[in-house]
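User: Hey, quick favor. My workstation is busy. Could you predict this chain's structure for me?
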Amino acid sequence: MVENDGLGPSQRGLLKVIAEKGGLEGFVSTTSGALAGELEVSQQTSSRWLRALEDAGLIERRLGSQGQQVRLTQEGVEDLTRELERLERIFEKGTSVTMEGVVRQGEGEGAYYMKQPFYKEGFEALFGFEPFPGTLNVQVEGEDLGSLRSLRAREGFTIPKVSTPERTFGGVSGFPAMVRGRRAAVIFPHRTRHEDVLEVISPVRLRDALGLKDGDELLVRVDVGGAVRTYEPRDALVE
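Assistant: No problem, here it is.
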């Protein structure tokens, strides 16, 4: 058996998927391909992670010609319980959550969306500042990735999905934040491919204000203690 601490967040993500499918109560039938689809990885990667979980004693497998049956062992249940307790401590110990990540180049979409009047006005109404037309992307890894996923699932300040004569724009949630003493906010577009990225907005271009470049490590402190509310754009159809 290998030490459980050698497992990364990706393998533990697979453990959570198995639990969600009923693997806490008993054996569930699945395939490495189906699990790969859930996690958006290759079948080879899914198979490798399954073996790692089995070697760590966190799951038990029964292999057959039609696939496999898998369930969490008692050690697997205890591992998930420790993860839950860790996240609960994070969100209960205060009114803020601090995550560390690495500054990454975005795809340039942030500037386009931040120029839309309902986003611009909405963020000003929700966070109290007019945002610079762009976002700072901070890629989160390791243990903080679990905190990011939990934060994304929380109810936050929200701009709902809206329609204009030109197109429909997805909803966005977020929380106030601080970055090296600078006022900011983190936002989570409801339609995104980048679930390991914190998108940070601020009244200024943070790259210039803080002298940041790609690859720099950055701490982001997110305020989760205040009451949340929703902004409804005046000149767009809220869906």
